[in-house]
Amino acid sequence: MMIALAILVALAASVAILFSGYRPGPLAESILSDREQALVAAVADAFFPPRGPIAVSGTEAGLVAYFDGYLRRSEPLPRFMIRLLLVYTELSPLLFGPRRVRFTRLTQEEQLAALEGAGTSDIYFRRVTFISMRAVMTMGYLAHPQVAAAMRMKADTDPFGIGDRTLEVTPVRYSKEAP
Amino acid sequence: MKTILDMLPTASDPHHGVKEWKDYTGDLRERCEVLVVGSGPGGAVVAKELAEKGHDVILLEEGAPMGRHDFRQESGEAMQRLLREGGSRASRGNIVTPTMQAVVLGGGSVVNSAICARPPAWIFDKWTERTGTSLTREDLDPHFDRVEAQLGVAPTPEEVQGERNLRFKRGCEALGMSVEPIWRNVQGCKGSGECFTGCRNGAKKSVDVSYVPAAIRAGARVFTSVRVEEVVADGRRATGVRGRIVEPFTRKVHGHVRFDADLVVLAAGCMATPVLLQKSDLCGACGWVGRDLRFHPGLAIMAMFPDPIDPWKGATQGYHSLQYLEEGLKFEVLWSPPSVLATRMPGVGLAYQQHLLRYDHLAPFDVICAADRSSGTVRARPGSLDPDIEYHFDQADVDLMQKGLGILSDICWAAGAEAILPGIHGLPEIISRKEDAEVIRTHRLKASDTIAAANHAFCSTRMSPSARLGVVDESGRCHDLDNLYIADTGIFAASSGVNPMLLCMALADRIAETIDGRL
Fold first, then answer.
1. Minimal CB count within 10 Å: which of A160, B266, B368, B442?
2. Distance (Å, rounded) from C-alpha B56 to C-alpha B35?
3. pTM
4. Any idea where the domains of chain A sit in the sequence?
5. Is B386 on the interface with A (CB under 8 A)?
6. Residue from B80, B352, B354, B381 whose CB has the most chain A CBs within 10 Å, to mutate
7. Predicted-complex ipTM score
8. DSSP-assigned beta bridge partners for residue B60
9. What share of chain B is helix, strand, coil (3-state, %, to 5)?
10. Each residue of B131-179: pLDDT tens digit?
11. Which residue in B118, B335, B356, B362 has the most chain A C-beta atoms within 10 A of its own C-beta, making it the best mutation to test that interface?
């Protein structure tokens, strides 16, 4: 009994240590905890580093706030799954490296290596988690006007200047059914 | 003084007359002759057709009526507002397959690429082989005609194709493959490429701006913000539904609803309808409710061109090739919000940013597979109306998909690509020479090497004249109940071969005709 209790206390202490030492996050009213904000910021700058070919980093593109909004709007189950994804991402270096510390304690080069490792892993689950994380990050990053401008990407509801003109259907040979 | 005309939808306000949660005070209790659950392509057709025949119709929808000014361009927010589970829904099984179902007045027609394609006659022979149906293309042709006329279906004009679509056409033609402009339910499309997040030009004739207003003009009542949780039955008769008033986006519950009807039509979609039947403990005798789920898995290759092609300009999906349809493969141009597609670009950090900077040179082309040997299940999650979806992507279909990827690669090179991004685990991230692309054909592809999306879903309440082999008969009526019908893609007996919306609507038109004859 005493041994079991001691193991439990030791486990609880380990978890507490593992999830301690985070500075307060930049967003005061955030649904993200300080730990989650720190992780999202680290992942954001690993995916989209400062001083890269696009002169806006992940955090400069406001990805922490974007992630916060995304999570806030999520339904309970997806929200839980996203939070699980964050926990997994933070702890995954303990299992897969490149150094056995949590993600936010890795150097930026190591964080990059950790993400690259996940994206190219032979373990399907790792690749799926990588894609899931990158999907949310990319949606937020491309929503930033400076990023869109750097990519020469322009949202235009009338890109060909059609206006109110009625278009003629091109007289090509086609059928509305399969052959 | 307000007249009845003031209550009807107009061109500038097609949703006029649609009720939503703000209009309700307390619980709702209504009665009608025909109750239709779900306002997507199937339900909207049934509601309009029966209302025009003089029946007292109520159409229910959980999602909100969304006008062109309600659509958000930012993909994350757009998906969370328009799609079930915020767009994060996926099946489990031997692969994780993202699958999207809409929750909005008009259902999937609001967020799809407006593709309208009639399945060829031999598709119905396959249906006969699987479940014994006797339905033929000829039987459905008058219904296709009616639906196409109502929606103004026409081929995509050349002026709005844009380079992304034109390069695909060029590639197919260079290979001697058939290629044709896609027929779509649009009017005045300007090629903004925003079908997926809702057409801000109002050009897409989704059913919320075509069939639903016509239903209201014919006297149908439309209640949105209504989440149906149970079909109520007494012996062999459905007597109505029970559910709750749910505020869109926040999902806040505002009260209870009870709708009584002489006849109920479920058109809640291939995922929601079987869940509703399971929760209501109905139609389970045959054992096919939620079983035999089928998808059209799709994979894309990105073609990188030497010159900028601005892929964000042009019709969402303007050309397709049906050359290999009988083998179970359909090739088409792909588009969705740029950020969603960018997710599958290779690299992290600086390398990823470099790829993003070359995005204006990229065009995604995709292949969808009939996947006749793959199937899955839809089950009600405990304590939830969201489905637990399981799907097994069979290796034989993966092999077929691999053949499709090989052809897709050929199309890219023939279109003038200088490199391709296969997006397949185990293959090079970028292939810069056509000869090197042979690896796409020779590599032993496994299901888990792919992240295949599957937004065409069907067969979860499949049709068969035999009560032993299907949930509904060929008129869409459930075998176990005399007055419960299903009118969504769940009733397909097998793959539609092509995009399923038009077939779903033609079947719904036929179901409405049958119901009218029986009432």
1. B442
2. 9
3. 0.95
4. 21-153
5. yes
6. B352
7. 0.94
8. B37, B223
9. 35, 25, 45
10. 999 999 999 999 999 999 999 999 999 999 999 999 999 999 999 999 9
11. B356
